[in-house]
Amino acid sequence: MTKILRLVLIIALVALVVSWFNKQSGISQIQWLGYQIQISTSLLIGLVIIFAAIILLTDRILRFIRNLPIMMAYGWQYRRKTNGDRALGLGFVALAAGDSRSAQKQAKKAEKLLGKGLLPDLLAAQAAHLSGDKNAARRYFAQLSK
Questions:
Q1: What whole-number distance in Å separates Cα of residue 25 and Cα of residue 119?
Q2: Residues 3-56: pLDDT tens digits?
Q3: CA–CA dist 105, 93 (Å, integer)
Q4: How far, in whole angstroms, is CA 8 from its chain's centroid?
Q5: DSSP symbols for 78-119
Q6: pLDDT digit string (tens) for 76-123?
Q7: Are 106 and 94 in contact (CB under 8 A)?
Q8: How many helices (H) does the chain have, and how many strands (E)?
Q9: Which phi and psi (to 5°) does residue 27 adopt?
């Protein structure tokens, strides 16, 4: 609601300024390189404002194009982290429920998304321990202790 109100206020302000400029009389003369241009002052000011708006719009578009790869990379990293955290959570829930197969699957998924780290390794160690794979559990716990 506040955005709509702000937009209405901006439009009203622009209309007021345009109306005021339209009521002003006067002619501007420009002499440059042997040419002489006569134009109404309100039209000249309007053209200057339109030119400035075009420059600003062009700048915004160029900045957006320049920053697009960075924004896409950030979104990709955010999705990987979110999906990795979800896999960790599901893996620990599966451990608590006693489902070692699902816990191992989620541990692999979390490690793939998040890389090597404390929580993915802990999940993999607990899943290996729950499934009865003592050698893998020993390896993971040894790696965690380092």
A1: 74
A2: 899 989 989 998 888 788 778 778 889 898 889 989 888 788 888 889 999 999
A3: 12
A4: 28
A5: HHHHHHHHHHHHHHHHHHHHT-HHHHHHHHHHHHHHH-S-HH
A6: 999 999 999 999 999 999 988 888 889 889 988 998 998 888 888 888
A7: yes
A8: 5, 2
A9: -130, 135
Residues 54-68: tens digit of each pLDDT: 999 999 999 999 999
Q: Which three-class secondary structure state does DSSP give residue 35?
A: strand
Among 48, 119, 43, CA closest to 84: 119
- Residue tagged 């309100």 (tokens): 42
Read off the tokens for 115. 């890389």
The model's pTM is: 0.56
